[in-house]
Amino acid sequence: MLTLAAPLEARATARLAGFPGFLRANGFMVGGGDAVTVLRAAQCVGVLDPQLLRWSLRALLCGRCDEWRRFDGLFDAWFLPPNRWQRPMQRDAAKAQRHGEWPELPAPAGNETDRDEDLRPRRAASRRDVLSSTDFRFLTERDSVLEIELLMRRFARRLQRIRLRREAHAHVGTRLDLPGTIRRSVASGGTPFHLAWKERRRVRPRLVLLIDVSRSMAPYSFFYLRLARALGAELPDIRSFIFHTRLTPVSQALHDPDPWRAQEQLHLLAQGWGGGTRIGDSLVQFEREEAGRAVHSRTALLILSDGYDTGDPRCLSDALAQLRRRARRIVWINPLCQRPGYAPICQGMQAALPHLDLLAPGADLASLQAVLPDIVAALA
Amino acid sequence: MTATGRAQDLAGLQQELAQAGYIAEPPLAAALLLMQDLERPLLLEGDAGVGKTEVAKVLASVRGTRLIRLQCYEGLDAHAAMYEWNYQRQLLAIKLLEHDERGIAQKEQDIFSERYLLKRPLLEAIACEQPPVLLIDEVDRADEAFEAYLLELLSDFQLSIPELGTVVATSRPAVVITSNGTRELSDALRRRCLYQYIDYPDYDKELAIVRTRAPAAPAALAAQIVAFVQGVRRMDLQKKPGIAETLDWTAALLRLGISVVDKDGAGRIMDTLSALIKTRDDRAAFPREVVARLAAAC
User: Fold this and answer.
1) Which fold has domain A206-379?
2) In angstroms, what separates the C-alpha of B102 from chain A's closest C-alpha?
3) Are B167 and B217 part of one and the same domain?
4) Both B7 and B49 in a single domain?
5) What is the chain A residue with the closest CA to B28?
6) pLDDT (average), residues B151-178
7) How far is A295 from chain B (nearest CA, A)?
8) Cβ proximity of A206 and A296 under 8 Å
9) Which of A238, A212, A225 minimizes the C-alpha distance to A294?
10) With A331 labelled, which of A266, B136, B195, B296 sits at a CA distance of 20 to 30 A?
11) Residue in chain A nearest B143 by alpha carbon
């Protein structure tokens, strides 16, 4: 390991070398070799000017926007002695888990064995299973929300693998266009000086999400938006819209690399959020204004709604019939489907059913995980 | 290096950048210095129009070196970015070598030699004698497969050409990668780069940019322009104006002889808004009253 020359700086060396580990514990994407690079950078920059060191280490150790924004606080926490933090910050627990470092879960009172290191991963795994099959409306704790988001991201990444494999096959280079080459060779007496190439033309599969954010969907729409954001980060072509009495595109807000700004934008967009539902009118608006751009022959249209519609059912039925002609699949994900005794007898669902390829449950992550890969696979 | 020495370097670089027309905040200048020390690529992220591409251009001009630019797009493949064989010339050479006495292996070596290699930006960048600045622009537009191709180049500064072998960089280019965040980049790519997030400039910085890039604008007008644009950016728009739009708008106002942005001139300001607002929906958010209100606040 590199050391700084002056003996006075030996402590600084140790402090610097420990910094990447501290960032890792707080969810930063920092590798094992980064301690060495930090020392190299410190040799270049010097450790006497804290601002310079801060800017340089920020460039070196951050990899994404949210890390960039959180860096200053963590830098201060580590390098200003009285405030040095021993434990990861709470809001980054989910990120730490992504790197396999599970923060301690609150142990039930009186059960000391639960603190045992060996048991922790297993407990975490079983907790994940439980979480993924918990109805979204019962997930209210902040920790659970973060964990479910983590699971969503992981699941979205799995979907990406399905897509990549297919794309790798379709992407086997450009191919020689023999008839074209021969035609071009006429001028040169049959010698193929000018080669013609063929390129595969393909349309990327696309998911369009229409998320109901009316009052009756309040416990679920929040999670569906998070799912849309997670999917959008991993799959290249996702369009998301929210609707209640009218429709609003939200893809751009969801794609904002800064989650806090995304949240602000959504709040601005979602005036009337939590009000009544006019599914039919919203779908007509979608068909008229957006479908031309958003829907093509390899599109699956996902409507995430409970089907409680205060509008005209015939309007809903007509809109779906129109959309049926454009999209490859129309799937209705209804969070109520899983409840015992549920039958799609409300007017909205009755009007929609004849035009759907699939009516699927979606109250928890497990049911979404069961249905989404098939939908993506069907777009091939 | 002592802290003062480094601080001087930093101030020097900032000054050089400013002379070349780019107002860089100290953190960016620090990252550029570190990029040189550690020979690592620099990944710049931020909204469109905040001046990411400009960093590479100005860096090339400050270092007095070439700028080699690779504009990424969906479907960009390795051949378009790295190298291609000049098939026509190869075929011609085959024809010419028909009566050559040499063995097949030698002929083949001749045909797959550098003479028939068309260098595309990436190969060109590592084959330069003097280290150039390589700009890989909007890497998020290219697909993941291409990003994976880039990794070898970014970590080892070498490229593999099956017919020729590995080409190692004669001099390491300064690599600047930009991304608008339309797609999540891989962790592998991010780990190999230094990172800098560039936000929209604040009032002071933007004013300094306008003063530097549009010296013809009177000081009072420049201040009003920047205040107006900052107000526009606070609105909920699909496409917020970037620095380039501010400069375009400044030019448009000067061209029309508008010397003051105020409520009474809202009508004339409306005529120039196309330089600032770039989508139909956003344009609808600027009726005369809104423009007048924004102008009055300047």
Assistant:
1) Rossmann fold (3.40.50)
2) 22
3) no
4) yes
5) A55
6) 87
7) 19
8) yes
9) A238
10) A266
11) A236
Q: Domain of B29?
A: 3-87+95-198
Q: Among B198, B224, B258, which residue terminates a domain? A: B198
Q: Are B141 and B272 within one domain?
A: no
Question: What does each C-alpha distance from A81 to A73, A85, A86 come to in angstroms?
Answer: 13, 9, 11
B2 pLDDT more than 70: no
Q: Do residues B158 and B222 both lie within one domain? A: no
d(CA A279, CA A62): 43
B190-219 residue pLDDT tens: 988 999 999 899 999 999 999 988 999 999
User: Which residue in A34, A76, A77, A79 sits closest to A59, CA to CA?
Assistant: A34
Which region holds residue A379: left if phi is over 0, alpha if psi is between -120 and 50, else beta? alpha
Q: What is the pLDDT of residues B54-69, one digit of tens each?
A: 999 999 999 999 999 9
* Domain termination site, one of B147, B171, B198: B198
Residues B152, B192 within the same domain = yes
**Spatial contact of A301 and A329, defined as CB atoms under 8 Å apart:** yes
CB-based contact A193 B91, cutoff 8 Å: yes
Contact list, A29 vs chain B (CB under 8 Å): 187, 190-191
Helices (H), chain A: 10-25, 34-45, 50-61, 65-79, 93-98, 119-132, 142-170, 178-185, 218-234, 251-255, 259-269, 279-285, 291-294, 313-326, 347-352, 365-378
Distance CA B144, CA A164 (A): 9
Calpha distance A234→A154 (Å, rounded):
9
> Could you give the CA distance from residue B224 to residue B190 in angstroms, rounded to a whole number?
39
| Residues B63 and B181 placed together within one structural domain of the fold | yes
Q: In sequence order, what are the residues at sequence separation of 6 or more whose Cβ sits closer than 8 angstroms to the Cβ of residue B59?
A: B17, B32, B133, B174, B176
Instruction: Give the number of domains in chain B.
Output: 2
Q: What type of residue sits at position B115?
A: R
- By C-alpha distance, which of A277, A276, A234 is closest to A254? A234
How far, CA to CA in Å, does A289 sit from each of A87, A266, A283? 50, 20, 10
Phi, psi (5° rounding) for residue A333? -105, 120
Residues B187 and B214 in one domain: no
Which amino acid makes up residue A42? A
**Cross-chain Cβ contact A255/B191 below 8 Å:** no
Q: Is the pLDDT of residue B120 over 80?
A: yes
CATH number of the domain at B48, please: 3.40.50.300
Residue ranges per domain, chain A? 9-76, 164-203, 206-379
- Among A149, A18, A69, A60, residue whose Cα is nearest residue B190: A60
Whether residues B171 and B247 fall in one domain = no
Identify the top-confidence range among A164-168, A252-256, B26-30, B94-98.
Answer: B26-30
Rounded to a whole number of angstroms, the distance from the CA of B3 to the nearest CA of chain A is 5
